Amino acid sequence: MSVADNLDLFRSQLSKFPQSKLVAVSKTKPIALLEEAYQAGQRHFGENKVQEMTEKAEKLPKDIQWHMIGHLQSNKVKYLAPYVYLIHSVDSLKLLKEIDKQAAKNHQVISCLLQVYIAKEESKFGLDEAELRDLLLGDELPALAHIKIVGFMGMATNTENQQVVRNEFRYLKELFDHYQREELPANVTLKEISMGMSGDYQIALEEGSTLIRVGSAIFGERNYL
Ligand SMILES: *Cc1c(COP(=O)(O)O)cnc(C)c1O
């Protein structure tokens, strides 16, 4: 199966979920494979390292929409700002303020998702329910004129137990629905839910995902050297 064949399969599955888009996660993969996906019509790509994203963005066509899906350190935001379309992994007010500052320098508004902790694993990043509330309803968010919060992102527990995964995605969707009904600052418009990867995207789509982040099912397994 080529990258183009895999993308075709995803397109046909996604046709049943018109609100959902595919982010092709190209981390660790060579430019040639990204070009293959681009030739096949793919425009949304996801990377988890700032340097890798900016290097690839420099080499590839300018109409690609780059998604930062990995944990982001404040001191790297300045390199990312000129290239990024959507940051999925915002997990603190401190990071959000830095994104706002760098976006202002570039005369842009950067769209962000708040990463919410939904898994039962220690290592996953994200805001818990109380932190999410404090950030969304706190005093500081309305002043950030160069960011826009457009939704939430979550990663389910890495388990074979589909019910656990489904419940975690359902929980994120419930939070999303809850905050859609709340009065939120003008720079918050909740429309995207980023959830689902190669192993669990089907469940995520059924539970209301609007952005699935799929790597290995498109580009093949990754080798970490
Ligand atoms: C790597 C990664 C993915 C894609 O993982 P696959 O299992 O290869 O589809 C999705 N989301 C995040 C945050 C990732 O780091």
Automatic annotation (TrEMBL):
Keyword Mitochondrion applies: no
Keywords, comma-separated and alphabetical: Pyridoxal phosphate
Gene3D superfamilies cross-referenced by the UniProt entry: Alanine racemase
Pfam families linked to this entry: Ala_racemase_N
Protein name per the record: Pyridoxal phosphate homeostasis protein
SUPFAM superfamilies assigned: PLP-binding barrel (SSF51419)
Residues that bear N6-(pyridoxal phosphate)lysine: K27
Record HAMAP family: PLP_homeostasis
InterPro entries in UniProt: Ala_racemase_N, PLP-binding_barrel, PyrdxlP_homeostasis
Known role: Pyridoxal 5'-phosphate (PLP)-binding protein, which is involved in PLP homeostasis.
Domain Alanine racemase N-terminal: 3-222
Sequence similarity: Belongs to the pyridoxal phosphate-binding protein YggS/PROSC family.
